[in-house]
Amino acid sequence: MSKFFTEFKEFVSRGNVMDMAVGVIIGGAFTGIVTSLTDNIINPLITFLTGGGTEISGLVVPGTKIDFGAFISSVINFLIVALIVFILVKSVNRLSEATAKLTHAQEQKEEAAAPVCPHCLEEVKAGATRCPHCGGEIPGGARAKA
């Protein structure tokens, strides 16, 4: 049983589980904000612009009422949340791509280019004073380009 709790502690302590927990908490709070936006700003604007209520008369089935207005509000909530999530994911992907490009550029920069003979432009060993290809003298020895 002790091993179970140790494994559980390791699982919960991993970064991606904590990130997911933070995401769920923030997502819940954000959903509340979007619901408030829809109920308190968008629906009253629709009422003002159309000159009527946002309560679309629902279909009454014996014993229950199908509320189209509530459904439309839920669709608006979903579309707003989906748009924001799309924008966030797109931004994170762009940031990841930029970071990957920067890392790749730094790795290439760190890999020193092989020295080149100034006469024939062939690669030579670092420190060579003569080119093995053309026999030209390399003053000061061949140095890698930074």
UniProtKB/TrEMBL annotation:
The protein's name in its UniProt record: Large-conductance mechanosensitive channel
GO molecular function per UniProt: mechanosensitive monoatomic ion channel activity
Cell compartments where the protein resides: Cell membrane
Membrane topology field: Multi-pass membrane protein
Assembly information from the UniProt record: Homopentamer.
Tree of life domain: Bacteria
InterPro entries reported for this sequence: Mechanosensitive_channel_CS (IPR019823), MS_channel (IPR001185), MSC/AndL (IPR037673), MscL_channel (IPR036019)
Membrane-spanning residues: 20-38, 68-89
Protein family (similarity comment): Belongs to the MscL family.
Species for this entry: Parafannyhessea umbonata
UniProt KW keywords: Cell membrane, Ion channel, Ion transport, Membrane, Transmembrane, Transmembrane helix, Transport
Annotated PANTHER family: LARGE-CONDUCTANCE MECHANOSENSITIVE CHANNEL (PTHR30266:SF2), MECHANOSENSITIVE CHANNEL MSCL (PTHR30266)
Primary localization: membrane
SUPFAM superfamilies: Gated mechanosensitive channel
A single Gene Ontology CC term: plasma membrane
Gene3D superfamilies, A to Z: Large-conductance mechanosensitive channel, MscL, domain 1 (1.10.1200.120)
Function: Channel that opens in response to stretch forces in the membrane lipid bilayer. May participate in the regulation of osmotic pressure changes within the cell.
